[in-house]
Amino acid sequence: MKKNKLIIKKYSFYLIAFSMFFLIFVAFTNINVDPEKIYPNNLKIFKSNFDLEKNIKKLYSTKGLLIYKEKQWNERYFYKILLRNYKDPECLIFGASSVVTISAVQNPRALSKNCNSILNLGLPGGTFEDYFALSNDIFPKDISEKKIFLSIQPFTLNFNRDHRWIFNSKGYYEFLEKIQNDQIKFNSQNKAKSEIITKSIKNLFSFDYFKRSIQILLYSNQEENLKIVKNLQAIDQSKYNIMFFDGSRKKDSYPKKNKKDVDLNNINFKIIKNRWYNNEVLDLLSKYKKYFGDNNKIIFLLTPYHPDVWKLNSEPINEAMIKVETKIHEFSKNNKIDIIGSYNPKNLGCKADEFIDAMHPSNYCLSKLEESYFNYSEQNN
């Protein structure tokens, strides 16, 4: 009996020691590889030689395509640098993942009646905080006669609907100061700092973050992980993520998905019932328009959801789409802001097979956005 207890004690010690060693290894890997680039460099022993700015400058100067298997950068930092290097686009697009394929160099083209050149700053999980953070690097005196598109999703008119904007929180708060809303800054900044700390601790021991770190390590020393190419004909497109020099992404143009292929399980992503919009956010958007709108045109962009989503009458997303679209039209009339698009695909003539999935229209559908144009900027109140 004593012998058995000693064996159990011995193996329990080994198990605890191994677990501690593994957690230390996970934390060490996550800090040093750091897929989202949230940890300061002074904590890192091994520093990457990857030069993101050099690659973005090459991407823009060659008007090429960036192809990669596993990204080695934070996407919010990527677009911050791209914005700094992209010269004089006619249109700027801020948004979430539903707008990332909008481009003046991809066919079929979206917004072709409004834009001859586009800088697409659409981000996975993009929120209005992201729009403001990136806008901090745009100065009204340096731009004029631009069209600035702000994508309004059913979740956009709320604070903190996605945590990823926190990477650019400094830019967000600086921009709030510029548009003179210190009250919101004071109320939100402590929460954001707390969330940054929480996220850093959580990712430190996160197995998902660890898996992403390992994937980057596996690809980082392979030349084929990242290339800048002139055309797509020379590569196997199924093996790479593809980004154009204007910031847009390549996805299935015409997926031809039937009803059985549409996954509706996560359709309420970021939607909180009875919290459809926040009037403070609307007030901030009004100030945004005043900040840029004298010499530039602000346009709200609404992208449609799959027709099957509109059949989910009892789901929060259905009520969110109706109430947010109604509210943004009311707000736009009062603030003289044009609207292009709609959440309802019927208003644009988009068919079920013109969607990548439930929330993401293909370029065939996006090319019809201008079928629904509300010219509120020239209407008299």
Question: Which features characterize this protein?
Answer:
alpha/beta, three-stranded antiparallel β-sheet, 381 residues, 9 strands, six-stranded mixed β-sheet, 10% strand, 2 domains
Describe the structure.
This protein has 381 residues and is of the alpha/beta class. The protein folds into 2 domains: 1-33; 52-378, no CATH class. It is 39% helix and 10% strand. It has 10 helices and 9 strands. Strands 3-2-4-7-8-9 form a 6-stranded mixed sheet, covered by helices on one side. A 3-stranded antiparallel sheet has the order 5-1-6, with helices on one face. α9 links the parallel β7 and β8 (338-341). α1 (2-33) packs across α7 and α2 (52-62) packs across α3 (75-85).
Topology:
Elements (H helix, E strand, L loop, with lengths): L1 H32 L18 H11 L2 E4 L6 H11 L5 E5 L22 E5 L5 H8 L11 E5 L17 H10 L3 H23 L2 H14 L5 E4 L11 E4 L34 H14 L4 E6 L13 H20 L2 E4 L21 H4 L6 E2 L7
Parallel strand pairs: 2-3, 2-4, 4-7, 7-8
Antiparallel strand pairs: 1-5, 1-6, 8-9
Helix pairs in contact: 1-7, 2-3, 4-5, 5-6
